[in-house]
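Review form for a predicted model. The reviewer records the input and the model, then writes brief findings.
Reviewer: anonymous (R2)
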Amino acid sequence: MQSIPVITIDGPSGTGKGTIAHLLAAELGWHVLDSGALYRIIGLEAEQRGIPADDSAGLCRLASAVEIQFGTRFRGSICVDGIEKSADLRTEAAGALASKVAANPAVRHALLARQHAFRQPPGLVADGRDMGTVVFPDAGCKIFLTASAEVRAQRRYNQLKDKDVGVSLPSLFRDIQERDERDSTRAVSPLKPARDALLIDTAPLSVLQVLTAVRTHVARTLALESSATPPPASQP
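Model under review:
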């Protein structure tokens, strides 16, 4: 499995890592892992099934048993136990639930094998918060996207406003600050860049500019990784 190349794209919510991961994976023809969706699923399903947030055993059973399918009905679709739930999983409420269950070490451990299973040929682009530090520490190319909480709140406000979703900018800003605090201070797998990750501040950049910077880094690092691989031994 280690011979299958992995590109990790980490960062807090609202930095555009999901968009970049999907665009890059489509260009490369690789698989994509939206790890945040896994935590959103567990958080939302736990709430709907009456599993308390502090019930580690119940959350782990749910994480192991729930059936999850990505992209089987349309691009971006997420089916949970055969029911399409992508719209429910993209709400602010689902994001808050995800951040809470993600702080549970037992849940993170329970989901680790599911994340590793996405590492399939010809390669994987994995987006999340600990892809480069914990889940795929051996990834050949690591990227960390960032932007201020103010910029990310404004981006999210614009997205929701375009969808006629009633939400206030101050409340979004507070939610993002609280989530950043939870994600960066949790005891297990805190949000932080890997030591060998390229940091990109997406605040002043367009999606195309970020993608261009990522493409350049991917081409350079994967080329270096390939050149560092010894050739196969010649046959006598």
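Findings: Strands lie at 6-10, 31-34, 68-70, 78-80, 83-84, 124-128, 141-146, 198-201.
Further findings: The chain is about 50% helix and 15% strand.
Recommendation: see findings above.
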